[in-house]
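Journal club side-thread
Mid-discussion, someone asked how the predicted structure for our own chain would compare to the paper's figures. Pasting it here so we can look after the session.
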Amino acid sequence: MIGTSPRRKEDLRFITGRGLYVEDIQLPGMLHVAFVRSAHAHARIAAIRSDQARKIPGVVTVITPDEMPELRGAVPDLHEAGTLHNPYCDLNIVPSQIMFPTVVKYVGEHFAAVIATSAYAAADGLEAVEVDYELLPVVNDWERAMRETSPRVHDGHGNVIAHLAHSTGQLDEAFSNAEIVFEQRLRTQSLKSMAMECRGSAATWDESAQQLIVWSTSQQYYLIQENLSKVLGIPREKIRVIARDIGGGFGLKGVPYPEDIIVPIMAYKLKKPLRWVETRLEHMLSAYHCGEQVHDVRVAARKDGTLLALDVKIYKNVGTYNHFEMVTPTNTVNHLHTHYKIPNFRAEAWSITTNHAPVTPYRGAGRLEATFTMDRVLDILARKASLDPLEVRKRNLISKADMPYSSGLIYRDGVPVVYDDTDLELLLNTAIAKSDYQGWRERQAQLRQQGRSIGIGISSYVEAGGIGPCEGATVQVDDHGRVKVAVGVNSQGQGHETTMAQICAQHLGASFEDVYVVGGDTSVIPIGFGTAASRVLVNTGNAVFLSAKAVREKVQALAKIVLDCDEVEIRDSRAFCKNSNRSVSFAELAAKAQRHPAMAKLGGPGLIATEFFYPRTVTWSAGVHVAVLELDRNSGQIKLNSYTIVHDCGVPINPMIVEGQVIGGFAQGLGAAILEELVYDDEGQVASGSMMDYAVPRASDMPTISLHHLVFPTSSNPLGVRAVGESGPLSAPAAIASAIEDAINNGATISSIPIRTSDILKLVRSPGRSGSDLQPAADGRASASGLERSAAIPCDAEG
């Protein structure tokens, strides 16, 4: 069962329209919420006049801090599962975010709410609310924000709110002995999650049960339960949060938002069922984004292309608040080595507040930034050493003989970073063979003589996933023979209901058809730490394994008694007496287990077990991408001729789902490479606030991908699995940038993403120019501004 790809269990309800999303929640007397949001990036709310809004037909009330004092307080502290401490961080200021603030600090920040009998009436009510603003200075640029003379985003401290530093080896000595030294600024943009379902929350107070029931789109719904308990003073068991069907998340739903707390508070105080669903415009303005990140690198190497030292300074624009400490810069530091030896290393990073919406980790979360930086460094080094980019990679690669390999880094759970149970040489060699790298180099030289610009790019990534602290699972067989698997995580499309059922079926000995999985509901298991950071399979998958194994032991023990035999085999939801035709079904055993006296020594009545898996630290996945493309030097357009991915995620539970994760992730990486960017103007207004200005990949942009699985089981968990959720996007920007640069072939350096066609044309016409000299489009349009998209269209070498 593990290693096969049965039909996904969850798909039937989705394709037949039977999924239950927040917007599907309909309760008697339900009212609709719309939030009054700031039109300015920084302002004091001098007055809110709601008299005219209250006269709109259907408007029930307008909630301000004066109407409901509970909303004057701060949003409870937010954190990511497994962030126990930051081993590098020596400064971390977390400014309070007020639920309904009197000073707004980014465009789209909410400070009041309209409640009405319909979403349309609520929208009309919003239009009628009058607000007086006292404008305050806006800080839009992180470099300006770092100056002592800059206006402050928050009173009481400067705009630099977090700092880290870490070093290994003898950096100064390495630079003094280097034959090649260079510096480069590299930039990655801010991205928005463009999930099909925007955020939403619904809530009702059940008077008879004395229970607050909340429906949410959050990836960390237990945090909502915990925070509501703190704010309202209600025991956690009296708050039920349901977040089962989620239409995409990608990390930006990974942290509870103020609205996730405010809507239930208002429902509890008003004793009315409420629902709020975010519009796409609200999403573009006020939902969190990943934040721009800039890396200033200084590199030391020998003339043969061997790296001696890397010195990097990282600047992270975290927007208005700092909910996630320095998770993304720390991830960047810990993933920056990727597949390569860096004997001397120093990193320093700063998080800087600006009047932008807050940031949160987005799929990849520092890993994409690290991969882009490392591969750009290697490509620049290859040019300076007059070597093929592949040769530079081979000379610096961590070999199998080096395993276990310790980089001198420390993961954010406090455990040293160690690579083991993998073969990075085989990954690279397989990618080179499968992509026909050498053949393309030969064809490249021939086609260049014909005036055609072919480019080849390589990128290698690592992905740390499976961070703790733990996850649990309950496996239970009922007296109909059905096997329920209850987990404390939810799915935003990853296929958990299928993969967890496969694990349970194999290790319990149940029929796959008999197993069903429930999650996304705080009532099914008492604790969970969220679907984020590629942690579900490692944590929850192994918890399911442990629980299934425990139930199997109960089945075996009881079946021996019932069948009166010494040895029992279990398969297809039945227990068979070995060397006999006698058997008993799971259904029969489950019924007997309710009252059978033998269960006194087997943990009590029923075929049920709950187990938790605690990882020692993260697992490390790895992969290599090779891109081949053709550039039209007159238009700046590119066409992807070939794209090869070779990756290892340990044991693939369901290869089809793994393939979907990798290819879907690649699509997001493609968007980051050539299309997507959230842009703010000088006044803090979002300049890319619609789908007309924020370009995302379309089906026609996707190339045919040659995907190859290598399997190196990890010894760090019983299933031998590694993470895969964030692997897909990591190398696409670096590989595509490398290939475009190679196609331009005039000494130009691409140092910033997204790579617009207008940027490509400037580099084609300006030999030796760096992409860091190119400014983001003033109108904020992604790719080549508006309809001038940098399309990646499949094309063969000859046409």
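Post-session note: The chain has 19 helices and 29 strands.
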